[in-house]
Amino acid sequence: MTVKISPHRFSGTVRIPASKSHTIRQLLIASLANGVSEIHYPLDSLDTRSCVSACRAFGVEITEFRSACFPGYNEYPNPADEKGEKLTKWEVKGNNAFNKRDLPPTQGVTRIDVGNSGTTLYLALAIAGLQAELIEFTGDRQIQKRSAASLLEALEGLGVQCTSKNGCVPITIKGPWAGGKVSLPCPTSQYLSALLIASPLAPSGTITEIEVPLLNEKPYIEMTLSYLNAHRIPFKAAQDYSYFKIPGGSSWKTFSCSVPGDFSSAAFPAVAAAVTGGSVTLLGLDPEDTQGDKYFFEMLKQMGCEVLWEDGGESGKKLIIIRNRPLKGGIFDLNKTPDLLPAMAVLAAYAHGDTALVNVAHARIKETDRIAVMARELAKLGVNCTELPDGLVVHGQGALSPNDRNPVVDGCGDHRIVMAFAAAALGNENPVEITDAENASVTYPGFLDLVGGVTR
């Protein structure tokens, strides 16, 4: 699908979709608990749907609740179905770490397709290591290129049987989890989160020790640990997260809670306002949440925007973004927040002077090599960039200057690339077309409509 974005000033009030990272963690934790949990106002997107499918493949019952009549329906960002109803809750009947499964495996193997969801894949791989039968994972063409080799090596060190295609799907996993001490370098934090979620469920008396010589995206580990603490699951951790010790014999508890808004998704309407000189009010975000991507708004402030938190009464905190002066470049360390690179690169394209996005080599192993893709596609819009091994320098001139009057940008099947260029297009002199636009639904199904995109 190709989307055409016409230039206009972006302003208004936007309720931000629920956090994908929180939604997937809550789905898996609820599935591992023994009993019924309620997840209120989760993210309804392609990635979270992939996680639901994975949980159901493990024998978990998940019931959807939808409505077309509730307070705030019009601003609620989940997509409506053909009846006009939006997802408001998942009721998850967990089966005690998948120990009460009723579904017979197909020819002795349970097969799970994670679609495009790397988070679902990595977290579920470790959970599968607790199971006695063979479980096979597959996914779409992008997932087939994303390696889980370090995670699989660690799982093998804990006694789990693993086979793969050079670390990529198709991957087969078979327990049991014997415990032990392993080294786990984490170019993505999801490897470590996977072991932290699964290892407490190993048999009583089992000890899992994890040495972490490399850890990117540290805030996502803080998010995972917040769930362990909330469920009173014991663990020991070095202050710098270079070592963990987790005893087996624990259990995840049932719960009922709402999912907070997603700071990484919030970056895109904020960029849309910033590059067009607009003003936007963002709802649904919690400034106290563990999400590292809230750092985006500090960077936005440093580049020249006003960023204000205000009390919104019953609707919670409001985050207001105003740009009333030129944007300026800077140097920003994105090691903890690699998902922000596409949005920051677009913001930098509209800034005056160079902007260096550094210490983020792991942005090359996301859905795409986001460093290379942003450099190549920004060039189509007249923006020069210099690639670094671990980052990107954007040579901003305050505006886009494409040679082609009607430029076409390749979305490369990457939801964050698509949304970044949709925001960028708003500030161009002429419309911009973006291919693979359907991938925005991986994280933010309504974003292209929000910015007035016309699809074909």
Automatic annotation (TrEMBL):
Segments forming domain Enolpyruvate transferase: 7-449
GO biological process: amino acid biosynthetic process; aromatic amino acid family biosynthetic process; chorismate biosynthetic process
Name recorded for this polypeptide: 3-phosphoshikimate 1-carboxyvinyltransferase
Subunit structure: Monomer.
Catalytic machinery residues: 339
Keyword terms, alphabetized: Amino-acid biosynthesis, Aromatic amino acid biosynthesis, Cytoplasm, Transferase
PANTHER family reported in the protein's UniProt record: AROM/DEHYDROQUINATE SYNTHASE, PENTAFUNCTIONAL AROM POLYPEPTIDE
